[in-house]
Fold these 3 entries.
Entry 1:
Amino acid sequence: MNNPELLTSSYDFTLPDELIASHPASPRDTAKLLVYNRQTNKMTHCHFYDFEKYIPKDCALIFNDTKVIKARLYGHKPSGGKIELLINRPLDANNINVYIRGKVKADTQIIFDDNLEAVVKELKDDGSRVVNFYQNEKLLRFEELLPIIDKIGHIPLPPYIQREDNKEDVSEYQSVFARQEGAVAAPTASLHFTEEQHKRVCTKHEHAYVTLHVGSGTFKPVETETITDHPMHSEYYDISDKAKDILNSDKPILSVGTTSTRTIEFYARHKELQRGEANLFLHPNNKPLRVNHLLTNFHLPKSTLLMLVASFVGVQKAQELYAEAIKEKYRFYSYGDAMLIL
């Protein structure tokens, strides 16, 4: 193995704990923004309210309009044992893939508020579980479950935000253009837009929406020695007709976030598939074909998201950009600051 870009160890870095953002910037657009221009090799430090100045002329923006659901539920077994359940994704109308903290086996019943129950159907090898949800003994479809968990569930803050969710998170861990319910993690580059800024950008630039329901697999670190041996997680996506028209054109694209990027690039490789399951892994040996510019946050060491960033700039430059961000005390991860790659 001579290529360092394919070694997982090349994507490691040390982040001081105080740079992990546990709360969002307020207002949203006061987050820092690092702009990197690949043509001039220049880095610029500014704030997200400056973002519009850097959008290339004649560029279309693609946003992910997924909406985070209250996927974390606290319940108990009939014996009284406490259970924490995190919804990951529906497998079909009734079978839901989840992660459970607490010991369960097949047929274990879990009781929640509002007469909601879950019954464990299957234990998967990857540590996840398949459950069916019932309310008043009626088997629920996923869309019937959503209004119930909206009432009794909790916002599923990522594992590195080491605090309980609060009222602020209900609105802050959600983009201002979130529409399609189904994500268990926010598309974090989107979180910087205020209503006003989003409106201004959309007035000045052609734009469209895709939907990628972000799953908890997005936080899974790469544990294989070589990145290409990593089993990439799969997520449901849907590309609007307007987005499809832009993707099929030759217009330059600025992708808002890694999730929009994965969706666009999956479509670039499978043009007959406007919706379905996307499991594309972008890295320096699998570079973007359609996205020209990327807006993104700062991601975890050894994560597929950092490898996606490296697919645009290479691993050495990605490490340089991250070292600069650490030196300048940028805030990292979901509630952290942003980077624009031009």
Entry 2:
Amino acid sequence: MHCRIVGAPVQDGAGRMGCEMGPSALRTAGLVAALVELGHEVTDLGAVSATPTPVRAHSNPAVKSLPEISAWTAAIADAAYAASADAMPIFLGGDHSISAGTVSGVARRAAETGRPLFVLWLDAHPDFHTLDTTVTGHLHGVPLAYASGQPGFEPYFPPLAAAVEPERICTLGLRSVDAAERAALTRAGVTVHDMRAIDEHGIAPLLRAFLERVAAVNGMLHVSLDVDFLDPSIAPAVGTTVPGGATVREAHLAMEMLSDSGLVTSLDLVELNPFLDERGRTATLMVDLTASLMGRRIMDRPTRSY
């Protein structure tokens, strides 16, 4: 497969600094080498850049960095659209606000190809706030709502060329959901599997059912992997830690199932804050999970010493 690496060093959407170093940490942890070792052709396109332009002040006084995130969204959407031409783009964040651009960009590509786009959101949070409902004002909490066409983003965010149908979104691993998001997710028809569902049923049947839906209509699948999908005991390098996340084996199983499906057409790796890491172990785990998604099997996995 031809993979295009796109860096999106955004930290304006998060509550603490450090995510802008995420793309460099993933590269340093050996992402490109792991993909090449698996037989993929890799082109590293470097980093997206954005210049903020004035945006009308929002009535919600909590909203932070609106001009910056609006500009990043437009620039990343264009980069995502370009990188998804006859290749699989892998977007290196940056906080999760980058997905407002990545998802909208690949949605535009999917619309042009005539195939439905599905989104698998691996995260402790659904990021389904709007500009009106966010309490913290940190805009890494809004990208999924924006990309699925929820109201309230115009004229502050770029107009959507194509929105993802909420019924084609699956959130997996949730364990921190605000009341406003809970109501919005239910109203929109998003598939929601929180950690209790994973505890009760296991991750495999929940993910398998979603992948069967994607395959049934020849869909394209965008996967957005947030570091805080993982339990902070194994992935501490994130500013939004929530106890009780996915284990190493649950995460690898999800990646291996995604690989087996052959459905994944684009990938986000987000919210890695190297400033909070321990000797690079979170970055290394994210690279290992990406390798599992891209074809590495247990029999191929090297032993690591720590």
Entry 3:
Amino acid sequence: MLEPPQGWGPALHEYLGIELWRIPIVMLSAVGIYLTFLVLVRIFGVRVLNGWNGFDAVIIIMFGAVAGRVIIGHPPTLASGMVGLGTLMLLEIIFGAVQSVTGIRHLNHKPRVIMAHGKFVVRNLKRSHLAPAEIYAALRKAGISQFDQVQCVILEVTGHLSIVREGEDIDPKLLRGVIGAEKVLTGRAGSTTE
């Protein structure tokens, strides 16, 4: 018959439940992983949030696997997973509320101009931890065949690249808060290789 050796009650508790003493440990682990992730994103940039190729996707999956394992501990149970996810969601709500109330956005990266009028903004490219090959791939995907077709490429706070074609009017309000926006607005006059 399909019954666990120890009986259904103990088996369900073992695989689905959680001992009360483990709840604060799971919560503290979730807080530690959350803060570690914030620090790593701050150091390495938002690029880590957006998988650019197959290898990066594998790394992102590994981040999730390691973080999940650390948070729920051993043995992993449904209840420990629920406590861990609940703690992560609560932290996200708390950090969002603190940022909204205080107006502090220093934990978030600002969007950054990576390319202006067909030329790389080298300083922003380096700070974003992007390789030119990644920009080339995004340009090809957007149907850009020549650099002179690019008015700007902006690395957004989400890690995605926004591409605006040359010849399109950009409302300066759309570039408010974007690092390097002046290189786009001033046209071809300014040097974009610094």
